[in-house]
Amino acid sequence: MNTLKTIYLRCILAVGAMMLFAAPTSAQNILELVSQAEQGDAQAQYQLGRYYYSGQGVTQSYDRAVAWWQKAALQGVADAQCNLGVCYKFGRGVAQDYAEAAKWYRMAAEQGSAKGQYNLGLCYYAGNGVEQSNAEAAKYWELAAVQGIAEAQHNLALCYSNGAGVEKNDGVAFTWYGKAAEQGHMDAQYSYALCYADGRGVAQDYAEAAKWYLKAAEQGHLEAQYAIGRLYDCGDGVAQNYAEAVKWYSFAATRGHKGAQYDLALCYDNGYGVATDEFEAFQLYKLAAEQGHLDAMYNLGHCYYYGTGVKQNEAEAIRLWRKAAKQGLASAQFNLGVCCSNGSGVVMDNIEAVKWYRMAAEQGHAMAQYNLAMCYGAGLGVAESYEEAVVWLRKAAAQGMQQAIDMLANLGETM
After folding, report:
1. pTM for this structure?
2. How far apart (Å, rounded) are the C-alpha atoms in residues 88 and 13?
């Protein structure tokens, strides 16, 4: 199974190499180039193919581009071979044929064409026209990476990061991410920042992480926009700046990032970097909750339960908390326990309350541990047990819950 999920899969067309002819400025220039090409000049054939492919100075035609590149490719022009491979891969001017694409990429790669090497690596990675092989993909990407192809450097870094086709090595991955990042590769900049943030392959350094997140964010990288917002929010690697956090959260939230929607909602809820706005907070919690964000689901439940930013609706609050609770959110489990204990929005049911308290308590929720202890102490929804009550009081007290500490003291029990 191929495990790399963020590999850079765009084929590279060799349209910027071997600029031996100036851009055509007149029909006369084109006629002269056609004459040279028809006389067998390989570079003229290659250049003419470029013009037809892009429609530069001539009527755009993939068919004619392919025809001229085939002539140049057969004469050994590596960039023509590479470009012919791209045409076969996408079916431009020829019927789509992955095997033919791989054949031409290989011919270019064997001549040392970095673009051909990179594209052949993509074929091996995807199993297009060749037998799938991460090892072969990594081999050709390394050849291209050494020649400075940023996309190859990024993909090779992913191979080392994931141990795909090569032995996992975070230090080597970090190095290749850096080389691609320095060339402005957006995804590499984000991954490079992650390395600094997580201390993978390099000493942890939030200031460097912030620097590279910002570079990627300014290029429009969604996760980087959210990440730099988080750093400004928390003051990690940068001076804490809620206004900057709101700015970057807003960019990411508008593009549908559920984490950014949730954190931006918190800003509106608490007036961090923006004027408090309960309705805006509610709307953002709703957007994030609809994407499955559990904490947003929980907070949205609060909005409905207390009527903040929306008309009060206990039934909807219970529905949201139950949905989050079933997915393991301890705070939602605790709230359901309280509602079942008090009959708030549901029929009072101590047995059901104990069930939810226990789920939250076993995840370390201190208030749930305390309430579960109270249930055992009073025999509410569970058989009365002093011993079990003390067990759960001690768990809550160990987390610093003052009520549990005081209760143990009143009972003459140690923590």
Report:
1. 0.89
2. 12
